[in-house]
Amino acid sequence: MSFKDFVPDGIRFWIYMLFLACFQFSNGMYFTAMSQMEGSLAMTPNDVKMMSHAVLIGLTMYFPVAFRLKFRFTNRTCLIMAALMLIGCNLIVPHVHSAPLLVLLGFIAGFARLFGTFECFSSVLPKVAPTHNYAVFLSFVFFVVLGVIHVFDIASTYIIYYYNWRYVHLAAIGLLLIVILCACVLMRPFRPMPKMPLYGIDWLGMVLWSTFILSLIFVVQYGNQLNWLDSAYIRVALGAASLALAFNIWRLFNVRHPFLEVNAFQSGNLLNLMIVFLLMGILLTTKTVLQNTFTGAILHFDTLNTASLKWFEFFGMALGAVFSWFALSRLNWHKKLVTFIGMSFIVLYTIQMYFLMSPDTNIEKLYLPLVCCGFGQVVIFITLTVYAQATAPFRNYFQVICILGFIRTGIASPIGDAIYSRAMSGVLSKHLAFLGELGQPQGLPLQYTLQDLYGYSVIFGVIILIVIAASRFKKHVGMPIPTFMRMYRVLKIKN
């Protein structure tokens, strides 16, 4: 209903899919451009990773205010505002050399990206899941989000390889201008419910929770580089995190409408979900730390060959989304079983990589492990998010998603990166000392180091499977996705 009358009904859904693709491409910060940004902007690898984490935290912080913004602004206004925010970030980022400012811009870009993405998904909800089934809808959501990101990572890699990393920002700006043009020409001002004012949103709470999680990420990301507590920066970051957490806890009980409510933290099995997401995030770091080291330092793949591997991860994600949809909505399998299956495929990925640690490995042998990794990652994301809906009331559901995002897209990856980087340094030193005395080839110590770490990862993955098997998952079907009318009433009563 947000489109003008002359737009055919048959293409309205696909126009939103085009908007979704454009928003998923537009990060403000691009993981594929990390090494180029380090050289051009005189940044360290940790600086660029910190900016990338800020994007994900900004994305996470949008969830608690998602429907408030949707019910305040029209569909067209939301899309144009999100696109303009992202255009501003993409224009500024290539010319800024201050790491703190780039972290702030990354946070804003992440928030704006989900602002536009959420508007698209909420608008196509009746088309994707006419029965308002979370399993169906979230299978579609995670496939589009994670799958499209991988496709555009490949596209951005080609742009960087043949041109320059700044051209990725220009391409994103061009796509966002298409969104604005289409929104202005094809859409009319429309909101699904009466206007709801923004009064009552705890913006200070958003700042405090963002400060808390970003300070923790800073400690974990820079700890090894700055020698942990010997650095004044680490001590200041820990102090900022402690103060922000203390203020947040005080505000939970003394503010009428805190950004995250007490009931959100009391949702059933929230701790179990956080633990599983944390362990999965640490284990998945093998893909970014160990696999990238293997393909770069041992197999000597160039940028384009490395990017081509993402197609198989994308294929695995597509299979995972279909499997999750069928298992959860048609077969009604217990969510614990589906989570166990998803984690088993991630463990299977580490097992296969353990036996592939050789300079004689050709690229075709990496296809199946990456399909398994993509499959397992999507299955776990979908299943645990559906399970969170099944155990949390709608009023607090998006706050629970935000809390899980602190782990899933926040602290888990930096912790895994720090663990594996530290372990690689220690294990590599031992192999260098031992094999150097024997006069072995120079690349052999690194090969043995990666194989050892993949072996430890297999053991760690088996422990995670045992933890999942021992965990208690309530068998709860959960309520269907509420209509806009019910969402509006809940938010109106709350405020």
Distance between the amino and carboxyl termini: 27 Å
Q: How many domains make up the 3D coordinates?
A: 3
Mean pLDDT: 85
Residue runs with pLDDT of under 50 for 5 or more positions? none
CATH fold group of the largest domain: Growth Hormone, Chain: A
Q: Please name the CATH architecture of the largest domain.
A: Up-down Bundle
Give the overall shape: globular
Number of helices: 20
What is the radius of gyration? Answer: 23 Å
Strand content: under 5%
H/E series: HHHHHHHHHHHHHHHHHHHH
Number of strands: 0
Quaternary structure state of the chains depicted: single chain
Layout of secondary structure:
Blueprint: H1 9-25, H2 34-40, H3 45-60, H4 66-72, H5 75-92, H6 99-128, H7 134-162, H8 166-186, H9 203-226, H10 232-254, H11 262-265, H12 270-288, H13 290-298, H14 303-308, H15 310-330, H16 335-355, H17 367-391, H18 394-437, H19 444-470, H20 484-494
Helix pairs in contact: 1-6, 1-7, 1-8, 2-3, 3-6, 3-9, 3-18, 5-6, 5-8, 7-15, 7-17, 9-10, 9-18, 12-13, 12-16, 12-17, 12-18, 12-19, 13-19, 15-17, 16-17, 16-19, 18-19
